[in-house]
Write a structure and sequence with these properties.
Blueprint: E1 6-8, E2 29-31, E3 35-36, E4 47-49, E5 51-59, E6 62-66, E7 69-73, E8 77-81, E9 86-89, E10 99-106, H1 107-112, H2 117-127, E11 132-134, H3 137-154, H4 161-184, H5 191-210, H6 217-223, H7 228-239, H8 243-261, H9 266-272, H10 278-289, H11 293-298
Parallel strand pairs: 1-4
Antiparallel strand pairs: 2-10, 3-10, 4-9, 5-8, 5-10, 6-7, 6-9, 8-11
Length: 299
Amino acid sequence: MNNEYREIRLAELNKHYPNLIYGDLARDLYISDKCQGGNLNLLKYPSKFDCYIAFYCVKGHFRVNINLKEFDVNDGTLLFYVPGCIICLDKGVDLSNCEFVLIAISRGILQNAKVNFSRLYEEAMRVMAKPCISLNKEQQCICGHYYHLTEALIHTKSQNIKEAIIDLYSSLSHYLGALWIDTLHSMNDSADSMRNKSCFEKFMKLLAEYHNDEREVSFYAGKLNLTPKYLSQLIKKTSGKSAPEWISSFVILEAKNYLKYSDLDVKEISYRLKFSSTPVFFRYFKSHTGMTPLEYRKS
């Protein structure tokens, strides 16, 4: 077992797969040629990436684990990864017949491109409830055009190629986002519903950033200029789960990842999760899971 899950920077992908991009842009954008499944060994261990990743399965089938939830990847599946999530392959997966294409984009390049980065992040957090979608023939064809146009741009000697590719991937980000939103938006899009969803997404963004340090609803309500009571009602109405339940689920997920994927002792885990003492962490974990941390680790 590793001491901890690995944290992998976008630039490190070049060590594992050839990058079609070169020069300064390669620090912020990674595009693979078609790769064989054996190259996915990088994901045999729990890993966190610092970039957005779009993974397209050309051929094959396997299961992937994202934040302790399993998802199927098949021919024509597009998988989206958000920075900070923990991802690894299902144990014993056979990758011998798998082929895939990988695109990774840094947060920085999206912030500099013509993309509403805040909205993109909020939508991405919602997408992680369903990170895999199947593309139909038309959608596969459109994505293929983006890919081949990138290849053509890379080999030209025209000026401003970097800016052209950044703008191209701004467009691709909008297109891929639209695919997921079309898939996920089956809810009523009334004005109130949209406002509630927007507030919920802002809450989730704050929660992803602060859950280890702040576990009181009042902190998040203050950040959103709402009363704790109103925020709790809104979150419950929008998601079916209360604000305290969301907060504890983030904390418990982090704790489970440490217990499952590291050799850290419980005292060190409680310290990293900012609990006042190990006994407090024990009680908190057991009240939410029905098991002690040690019982979970052995399960």
